[in-house]
Write a structure and sequence with these properties.
OB fold (Dihydrolipoamide Acetyltransferase, E2P); 7-stranded antiparallel sheet; alpha+beta
């Protein structure tokens, strides 16, 4: 076999892998799956974000500190800081396109994996475990994807093929219920 033939075969094999890697990256999770995989979940507001090089791993990480308004799973209270691999480089270019960006003042419902032994975590399903809260105190809403809509199907007449907004209180009630069901199953 010539070097050229071997290189062509390797190239073709890599092309076959690309669609499967892409499909794994974009698998959409239901709200039930997100809560089931979460180590911690809370409703809160971003207080600060710090980008730094983690001395233990030499990775560029973001440390995001949240003021927790309500613990939904895992016992978070007061201020919680998570450490994630930075989703952008120093110039703001996206490295991990599906990791959410957080900025001070962002109000979110966040569901994170348990931290690794290195202290790193990420939202469940990359960006799928972060739900942005929008609106005023009288009408706060959360945007959910089509994959997460099943939980709210009875409460809406919106089309089932795209994202929709649901009232924050309804969303929090659904997460509380799912977290309680999960806790019962684990006992």
């Amino acid at each position: 076999m010539t070097l050229r033939t071997a290189m062509f075969g390797t190239f073709c094999a890599l092309l076959l892998l690309v669609p499967s890697l892409h499909a794994q990256r974009t698998v959409r999770l239901s709200l039930e799956s997100i809560v089931a995989k979460a180590g911690t979940a809370f409703h809160g507001t971003v207080l600060r974000t710090v980008r730094e090089t983690d001395p233990a791993t030499s990775l560029t990480v973001d440390r995001i500190t949240f003021a927790v308004a309500e613990d939904l799973l895992g016992g978070a209270s007061g201020e919680v800081t998570v450490m994630m691999v930075a989703g952008t480089d120093a110039r703001g270019r996206r490295k991990l396109s599906e990791l959410p960006r957080f900025a001070p003042g962002d109000e979110v419902v966040a569901m994170f994996h348990e931290p690794s032994t290195l202290g790193l975590t990420s939202p469940v399903g990359m960006g799928q475990g972060t739900f942005r809260v929008t609106g005023t105190a009288q009408g706060k809403r959360v945007t959910i994807s089509a994959a997460q809509r099943e939980r709210f199907a009875a409460r809406t007449a919106a089309p089932s093929d795209g994202p929709q907004q649901v009232p924050l209180n309804d969303f929090l009630a659904a997460v509380r219920t799912l977290a309680a069901e999960r806790k019962e199953r684990l006992q």
